[in-house]
Amino acid sequence: MRPIIEIDHISKRYDSGTVALNDVSLEIAEGEILALLGPNGAGKTTLISIICGLVVPTGGTVRVGGHDIRTDWRAARKLIGLVPQEILLEPFEHVIDCVRFTRGLYGEGRDEAYLEQLLRSLALWDKRNARTRELSGGMKRRVLIAKALAHRPKVLFLDEPTAGVDVALRREMWAVMRDLSAQGVTIILTTHYLEEAEDMADRIGVINRGQLLLCQPKDQLMGEFGKKRLTIQLDQPLSALPAALQGRGMVLAPDGQSLGYDYDTRAERTGIAHLLADLAQNGISVRDVSTKQSSLEEIFISLVEEEAKEERA
Length: 313
Hints:
Layout: E1 5-13, E2 19-28, E3 33-37, H1 44-51, E4 59-64, E5 67-68, H2 73-78, E6 80-83, H3 95-105, H4 112-121, H5 137-149, E7 155-159, H6 167-182, E8 186-190, H7 194-200, E9 203-208, E10 211-217, H8 218-225, E11 228-234, E12 250-252, E13 258-263, H9 272-281, E14 286-293, H10 296-312
Parallel strand pairs: 3-8, 3-9, 6-7, 7-8
Antiparallel strand pairs: 1-2, 1-4, 4-5, 9-10, 11-13, 11-14, 12-13
Helix pairs in contact: 3-5
């Protein structure tokens, strides 16, 4: 099956010499949720802007639904909905008229039943006759999402969509996104809430300094780069790790009450059984053990730091 978005060796260099994107290639399947992560200035927004036809690339090609964004831009753009970072709304326009107008821009006829369904799904129906200047920041962001979905796009870009939105509303919005994905809408999001990407995305892409460092299924990424930490709670505190146990990768907590041990879940043998046996042989009594999987945030930070080290080398 042909991917809904095909990005082929896209680059963007500005006249100032700044390289925003450097030879990025990526395919995105229909109906998947892709999270693009990266520090500020990494190139995430530039990539989205190029796909949406807002920025002209220096090199490479992009196709949306098989349509080239430069030579067949009208057909490509009709398949796309964009929720930008900035909240830009006409302050005196009513919510329902704002969404109707956007739908009309794409040449779509009136469909009041769909617009009601859309506004209800975003908890905006009761505010349909309110002027946008009367809304809270979270409400305004929901209006942006409604505008992006007004013409029933096949691809939805969300650039920091939940910034300034409270936790309860954020959950409601992601329930809507899950429903859209189930209906075959492809969703590409950038977010600084890494727990959001970890919870929502099918694949994770990491961009830094204009380069796509990787793009992998979330479970594969967590398995490949994630580690587990074994925390061993001790019956009696230790002042220091016995010499016989040093060099085994164990770290004694500052209070001496616990030991930490990082291990690779993919390894054939984790070494935990031998570790616990060695503790017993050295007269160290264990009260409890627990494990914790590395979070996406920890993996992301390690990837960016490793890339920075390679740049300096």
